[in-house]
Backbone:
């Protein structure tokens, strides 16, 4: 073992290592430093590790160092302290010093530096300062080193905590995405990867019924089961409240990902035991295959999108870009629809409701229409579901109600004594659940001076199923205003005779899917006849949708249907055209 160098002895750093032979010349031309003093008291007086270097004969020379510098190097070396200076001078730090001695004006003066190997590794901040040349004119500098090992390790520990889920001990979402990003830096030849997003279904019910501690216990147990489904090289992370992510390697493409999903479902077949209860847990699994141009966050979002598809289908789903594009389109429509409502860019069209026996127009159904300046016409079958999903249906519904009642009032002002017809406005189940519909309708009628019997509100059966008690209170309030209630799309939902018997419904609208097939399908005729018989028994009127020809109109009239609407009579019309259509169909009504 070589003995450590004494402070003050001059050393030369060569490509082969460190020359530890002392030179008799000592340190020359450094003021206030006594070369004969092995302890170099002036360097030792500095509060940090420090050493002096010079450059001569195309070599870097160690001219002196203090005890703190020696201790720093020794703490990062092995037990024999071999290559003590090679750890420092022959590596990055030596180049750092040499560059400065060659060109102190432009060379960097600061360096974050690591010395030694784990676990002895030390972290330092190095800083250089110029000194006067020695007696021979060789450049010299002072290197100071501040040991920041404690701070760096504390930061590393903090980051490790930041990347770990405190409940399950698994990597969290940040660590998960960082691992995916690292795949691009060190790709494994011939091996692809996929991300599985796993969502525990109905997890909130466990928290609500058993408490959050039971929910935490389930998450921990669920994580342990998922661990047993992993293969070597797979990674499991907790990426959200009740959501987990798995990064799997693929040698057989999507087949491997589907096999992983199957293993997970098999593991969940055994109930989980929480306290004294056994709970069957199911999950939705979305799969996204990694491709070279997809970033980690986007890849995980793709898997989450597939989870939504899996919840609807009840089986693992692989991300499909076309479906994602459609989702982005819906999101774009939501943003633009909000702006369109605020700027009143939507319009109402009015489709006539015709008495099937006399041909007279008895009313109009108000239908929202949207013509986008860039996209063109966007149909209600596209933007109404977006409005319901986003909550915009509340604003849209209020706008439609106000515009329809305002139109009736404008038509009445053009005719003495008003006009003998009503307008039907659609009412969403979300409006009934979230909005104060009765107050809104009442204020709108009073504001425009229109009586409640001129208004029919159309609703679907879902408005009743969600909360029958609230639906009953809302319907009774609307009836108190004089408005009529119509059950739209009857026969296509979860029809309940009990609801029809209890709720104050005035009209049943027969869905167009039955009406259009009547002439070709005897079953559709039977369904329509049954609905008409039911309405008569309950004292309700009937309206048939989707009448597109005279034979249908004649058949429905013969069966006893009172009112119809469809392209056979007229398409939805602009307000002025609708009023003109009414006058032509009702010649006894004259303009004031």
Residues:
């Amino acid at each position: 073992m070589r003995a450590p160098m004494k402070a003050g002895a001059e050393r030369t750093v060569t490509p082969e290592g460190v020359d530890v032979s002392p030179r008799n010349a000592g340190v020359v031309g450094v003021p206030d430093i006594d070369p004969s003093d092995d302890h170099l008291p002036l360097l030792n007086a500095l509060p940090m590790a420090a050493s002096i270097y010079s450059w001569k004969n195309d070599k870097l020379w160690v001219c002196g160092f203090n005890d703190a510098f020696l201790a720093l190097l020794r703490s990062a070396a092995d037990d024999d302290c071999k290559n003590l200076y090679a750890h420092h001078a022959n590596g990055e730090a030596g180049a750092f010093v040499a560059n400065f001695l060659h060109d102190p004006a432009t060379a960097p003066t600061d360096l974050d530096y690591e010395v030694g190997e784990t676990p002895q590794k030390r972290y330092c901040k190095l800083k250089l300062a110029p000194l006067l040349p020695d007696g021979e004119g060789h450049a010299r500098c002072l290197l100071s080193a501040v040991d920041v090992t404690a701070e760096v390790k504390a930061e590393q520990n903090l980051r490790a905590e930041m990347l770990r889920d405190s409940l399950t001990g698994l990597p969290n979402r940040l660590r998960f995405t960082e691992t995916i990003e690292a795949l691009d830096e060190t790709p494994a030849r011939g091996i692809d990867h996929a991300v599985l997003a796993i969502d525990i279904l109905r997890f909130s019910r466990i928290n609500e019924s058993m408490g959050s501690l039971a929910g935490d216990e389930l998450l921990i147990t669920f994580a342990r089961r998922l661990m047993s489904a992993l293969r070597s090289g797979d990674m499991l992370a907790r990426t959200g409240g009740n959501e987990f992510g798995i990064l799997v390697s693929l040698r057989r493409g999507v087949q491997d990902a589907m096999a992983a999903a199957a293993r997970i479902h098999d593991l969940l077949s055994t109930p989980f035991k929480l306290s004294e209860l056994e709970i069957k847990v199911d999950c939705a699994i979305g799969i996204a295959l990694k491709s070279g141009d997809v970033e980690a966050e986007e890849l995980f979002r793709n898997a989450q999108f597939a989870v939504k598809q899996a919840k609807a289908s009840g089986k693992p789903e692989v991300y499909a870009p076309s479906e994602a594009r459609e989702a982005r389109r819906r999101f774009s429509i939501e943003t633009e629809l909000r702006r369109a409502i605020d700027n009143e860019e939507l319009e109402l069209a009015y489709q006539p409701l015709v008495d099937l026996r006399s041909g007279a127009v008895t009313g109009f159904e108000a239908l929202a229409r949207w013509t986008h300046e860039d996209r063109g016409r966007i149909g209600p079958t596209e933007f109404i579901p977006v409005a319901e999903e986003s909550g915009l249906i509340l604003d849209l519904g209020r706008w439609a109600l106000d515009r329809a009642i305002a139109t009736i009032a404008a038509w009445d002002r053009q005719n003495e004594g008003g006009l003998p017809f009503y307008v039907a406005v659609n009412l969403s189940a979300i409006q009934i659940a979230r909005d104060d519909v009765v107050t809104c309708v009442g204020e709108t009628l009073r504001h425009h001076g229109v009586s409640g019997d001129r208004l029919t509100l159309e609703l679907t059966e879902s408005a009743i199923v969600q909360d029958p008690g609230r639906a009953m209170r809302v319907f009774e309030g609307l009836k108190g205003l004089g408005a009529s209630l119509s059950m739209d799309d009857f026969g296509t939902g979860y029809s309940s005779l009990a609801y029809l018997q209890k709720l104050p419904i005035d009209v049943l609208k027969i869905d167009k899917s039955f009406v259009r097939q009547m002439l070709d399908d005897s079953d559709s005729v039977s369904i329509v006849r049954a609905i008409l018989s039911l309405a008569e028994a309950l004292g309700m009127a009937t309206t048939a949708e989707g009448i597109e020809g005279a034979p249908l109109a004649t058949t429905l009239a013969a069966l006893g249907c009172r009112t119809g609407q469809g392209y056979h009579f007229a398409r939805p019309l602009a307000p002025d055209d609708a009023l003109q259509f009414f006058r032509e169909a009702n010649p006894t009504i004259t303009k004031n």
